[in-house]
Amino acid sequence: MCKLVFVLMGLGLLLSVACNTPYTPKSKGYAAMQFPKKSYQSFNIAGYPYAFEYPTYAQINKEVNYFGSSKKEDAWLNIDFPIQHATIYISYKDIQPHQFDTMVRDAYTFVNNHNNKASFISDSVFTTDNGIKGVFFHIGGDVATSYQFFLTDSAKHFFRGALYFNTTPNEDSLAPMNAFIFKDLTHLVNSFRWK
Fold it and tell me: Would you list the DSSP string of 19-65?
C-alpha cells in the first residue's frame, strides 16, 4: 500500500512539473497573401510573330536557353513573376508540313508527364474573340505545373506556355497564387494575336 502511495505521489509530481509551459494554440490555415493590383501592358516586339498583354508586375525575359542552346532567335521567352516566384515558360515553333499532329501530341505528352502526381487533368478547347484556337490544361494535385496551354492557327504558328513555381509543389499552399496567376494567363490568352 505504501508503494502505491509513493508511485501516485511521484506521478502527480511529474505531471505538475512537466506541464508548466503555457499552451499556445496554432492558427489554422496559411498566412494571408498580398497581391498586386491587376494591370496589363503590351508585348509587341519586332521579330516575334505574336503579341499579347501581360501583367505590369511581371517581367519578360528574352534570354532563354534550352539545354544550352539559345532560343532567343526562335521567339521563345519567359514571363517571370518575381514576387510570386513563378514563371510562364513560352515556346514558339513554325509549323512545318505534316508536323502539326506531332506538335499537338507533344503538348499532351508534356501535360501527361505529371500523371504520377496529378489528382486530375482536364483540358478545354477554346476559340478566343480574336479567333485564336487552343487548348487549356488544368492539372490538379501536388504537381510542378498547374496550368499549361497551347495556341495555334493549325497552319503556321504553334505557341505553348506552362506555369511553374520555384518551390516544392504543394497544392494547398499554392492555391491562392495559382488562382491569382490563372487570371493573368486567361488575360494573356484572350489578348493574344498573331502578327
Answer: T-SPP-PPPPS------PPP-EEEE--TT-SEEEEEETTSEEE---E
Give the CA count within 13 Å in the CB-facing half-sphere of 87: 13
Which secondary structure element, helix H or strand E, spans residue 142, and what is its range?
none
Q: What is the pLDDT of residues 93-122, one digit of tens each?
A: 999 989 999 999 999 999 999 988 999 999
Q: Which domain holds residue 66?
A: 57-194
Residue at grid coordinates 505528352: 109
pLDDT digits (tens, 9 = 90+) for 35-71: 899 999 999 999 899 999 999 999 999 888 776 666 7
Contact 195, 48 (CB under 8 A): yes
Q: Which position has the grid cell 516566384? A: 85
* Residue 169: CATH number of its domain: 3.40.1000
> What DSSP assignment string belongs to 87-100?
EEEEEEEEPPTT-H
Q: What do you get for the CA distance between the two ends of the chain, in Å?
A: 95
Looking at the 3D structure of the chain, how many domains does it have? Answer: 1
In a domain, 89, yes or no: yes
For residues 37-62, one letter each, b for 16 or more C-beta atoms within 10 angstroms of the residue's C-beta and e for the rest, the string is: eeebeebeeeebebebbbbebbeeee
